[in-house]
């Protein structure tokens, strides 16, 4: 191992900044202590592998991670509901299966797969059937929760406005 393969934390911050990551000294110190970077402690000084800084990609946290996870879960739920409806109608599944095939005797499997309650799946199906395309897009994008959309659909059905929009949109398809 050559001496130039390892750099100080200060040098590591400069390397990370030049690569666009902008890791602080404390972040690099934490990554060294937790073993997420290849590093050795010599006395009181951490020496970090230059290569480990160059290849390090921080994990997504905060809003970005939550948003990505929620969108992925929403897509999985939507695909499973499409497959269940297609199976119930006896038509071919409109999506490529991403999970092993399973009989859909009730909504418990879809709920389990999506990590939500059966009530939420049931409400999602009602929203999908009766919502306007705009409301459905808000649900699918995560801007609106299924429960909120369900209440809006129920209120729209009572007043007659929501179902008219949905009928017009479905007739256009």
Can you walk me through this structure?
The protein has 173 residues and is mainly alpha-helical. The chain has two domains: 3-55, Arc Repressor Mutant, subunit A; 62-172, no CATH class. It is 62% helix and 7% strand. The protein has nine helices and three strands. A three-stranded antiparallel sheet has the order 1-3-2. A hairpin with a 2-residue loop joins strand 2 (39-42) and strand 3 (45-49). Helix 5 crosses helix 6 (118-130). The longest helix has 28 residues, at 62-89. The N and C termini lie far apart (65 Å).
Note the main attributes of this structure.
173 residues; mainly alpha; Arc Repressor Mutant, subunit A; 2 domains; three-stranded antiparallel sheet; 9 helices
């Amino acid at each position: 191992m050559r001496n130039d393969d390892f750099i100080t934390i200060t040098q590591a911050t400069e390397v990370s900044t030049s690569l666009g990551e902008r890791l602080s000294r404390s972040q690099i110190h934490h990554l060294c202590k937790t073993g997420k970077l290849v590093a050795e402690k010599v006395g009181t000084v951490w020496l970090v592998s230059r290569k480990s800084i160059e290849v390090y990609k921080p994990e997504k946290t905060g809003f970005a991670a939550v948003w990505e996870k929620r969108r992925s879960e929403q897509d999985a739920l939507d695909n499973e509901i499409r497959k269940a409806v297609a199976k119930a109608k006896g038509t071919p599944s409109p999506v490529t299966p991403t999970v092993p095939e399973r009989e859909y005797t009730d909504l418990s499997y879809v709920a389990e797969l999506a990590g939500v309650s059966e009530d939420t799946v049931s409400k999602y199906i009602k929203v999908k059937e009766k919502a306007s395309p705009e409301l459905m897009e808000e649900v699918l994008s995560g801007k609106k929760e299924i429960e909120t959309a369900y209440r809006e659909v129920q209120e729209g059905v009572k007043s007659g406005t929501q179902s008219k929009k949905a009928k017009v949109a479905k007739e256009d398809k």
